[in-house]
Amino acid sequence: MSQILLALPKTDLHVHLIGCVRASTLEELAARHGVPLPLPASDLYARINSDPTPEESGRGPWFPLLRIYELIGSCLREREDFARVTYEALEDGLTESGTVYQELAISPTVHLGHKVAYATVARGVQMGIEHAREALGVDARVIAAINREDSPASALALVDEITRNPIPEVVAVGLDFDERKGPPQRFIEAFRRAGTAGLHRTAHAGEHVAGAANVLTCLDELGCERIDHGYHILRDPAVVSECRRRRTVFNVALTTSRRTLRPWRRESVREMLDQGLRISLNSDDPKLFPTTLANEFEIARRDLGLRASEAADILRNGIDAAFCDKRTSAGLSQRLESALREAGSEWEALDHGNGGAGA
Ligand SMILES: [Zn+2]
């Protein structure tokens, strides 16, 4: 499975740039910008743990995910820093997982907190994408994520910044950070303004808040075309059936969760598939947990009994739901279908005689 799966061209639609920074790069950037790290970067990532066991607590220190996320953000200061981490994210995606297209979410207000302007971030990321296109033959777009823990006014200011500094790669706005602290209703105006400006829209919803209401608000009031996570909609059969009717794509991730919630999340994704919902698989914050997109597919195969036909549909959904132009999308589609044809009977045979993985 690994080799066939690895060779298939993939999209990653839900991946945060800050969550892609290599530990070795973080070490260098922290030194250059004089940001003290509480531990050497190579040890730091292994210390991100939202739920240490009682035994592990005594072997601290442990750091909350969002604290490390902010810390990495504070080490990115110059356009070249953003270009470098973008290029490395695209390079790692390709070599580790066969990812040929990513939609990288940036966190402009995290950087603004360190006096780094939106234009510096976006231009740097654009440079990294241009470099990767030439050197690696991969492509990417950018989602400017609104931090839902910020005020509605700062969300509006971000949308205005995006429209004042048009960059072709920046095609969408998103909504992330803690869902419990920032309900989507607060950002209706910012999302409407983004829609009027021709930006695509997505949001993290149904990840932390038990219930389907946030997902509906994001789809109907914020105008989101797809949803990041969304597991909690399973609590409401009427919403499940509505999302199935609309063919909404949920950009799920199997690993990037508190460890104690991981089994529930994985069972939820299996249930979403069984309920006929469309999903795409994604790496989310691959360096911080750590995982890779190929690993997410392996987990789905091993723990969720993902069938070859389901894996192919997931890969197709990742292209259908992408926020790129039709030409790019058609190119991705062509690349995937010809790889699937090439894998041919070997790919179909995965559901038979592979340790019962096709259950
Ligand atoms: Zn995310």
Describe the protein's architecture and organization:
The chain is of the alpha/beta class and 359 residues long. It folds into 2 domains: 293 residues, Alpha-Beta Barrel (TIM Barrel); 54 residues, no CATH class. Helix content is 50%, strand content 14%. The chain has 16 helices and 8 strands. Strands 1-2-3-4-5-6-7-8 form an 8-stranded parallel beta sheet. Helix 10 links the parallel strand 4 and strand 5. The radius of gyration is 20 Å and the shape is globular. Zinc ion binds next to strand 1. The site of zinc ion has 6 residues, from strand 1.
Protein topology:
Elements: H1 2-7, E1 10-16, H2 23-33, H3 41-44, H4 54-57, H5 65-74, H6 79-97, E2 99-106, H7 108-112, H8 118-136, E3 139-147, H9 152-164, E4 170-176, H10 188-196, E5 200-205, H11 213-220, E6 226-229, H12 237-246, E7 249-252, H13 262-274, E8 278-281, H14 293-304, H15 308-320, H16 326-348
Parallel strand pairs: 1-2, 2-3, 3-4, 4-5, 5-6, 6-7, 7-8
The structure holds zinc ion.
Zinc ion binds next to strand 1.
